[in-house]
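As noted in the main text, all predictions were made from sequence alone. Below is one such record, for Membrane protein.
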Amino acid sequence: MLDFLLTSDAIMALLTLTFLEIILGIDNIVFISIAANKLPEHQQSKATTIGLVLAMVQRIILLFFVSFLIGLKEPFYTIDTSWLHVAISWQAVILFVGGLFLIYKSTSEIHEKVEMPLHDENELKGKKIKSLSHAITQILIIDFIFSVDSILTAVGMTNGLHPNHNYTLVLMIIAVVISIGVMIGFANPIRKFINEHPSMQLLGLAFLILIGFMLITEAAHLSHTKFLGNEVGAIPKGYLYFAIAFSLFVEFLNFRIQKKHKK
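Prediction:
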């Protein structure tokens, strides 16, 4: 396993996935902060830390559940016509539905952030929180909602990296632990950075659209889909890593130009 974790593909996947987990966790941090700020001051930090740690445990449990479903590779239904051939498995179904969900969720999130940037925050602020346990419960509910796209992103980034799915599961767990650890230690600075550079979060959501499309093509490839005699191929993950790295490089140059203009 150590040999796999030290490969260039695994390291690149881990770095990319950790970055996306942190970027996608920004909304989570904002909502957790809003929930925690309704408590007495001496309980706010405790609620944030406990909430994030329990959120990490919740995500790891979800990873095991999704990974079990992804492991179901045997086809349970086959469509075979003169123009279409599809061998449907639970693995393909999860990837296909997950891809559609990521595209829908990312598109709607981008629209909401552009048109109604404070909608969710205002909605949460209107809810009453009476105790520490109540705050932590609400934090876990919030995190569960955000965990779905986070888990699907992890599956999309690591699926097919190694024949043994347990190896990729360990890689996903490491990324979740690192990202939650970073969020616990740097929640306020991260939130401040994103508030100053909201384009970073929009960039992360745009990456999710790419990952969603990749999951759909991966599902078609794993189902041995043939359309008019042509088999659907999988998109090499190296293309995705390059697109993300190139976009981040351009955004970094944009930061530098903005700083020079401010000076």
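DSSP finds ten helices and four strands in the chain. The chain has one domain: 2-262. These features were considered when defining construct boundaries for the mutagenesis experiments described in Section 2.9.
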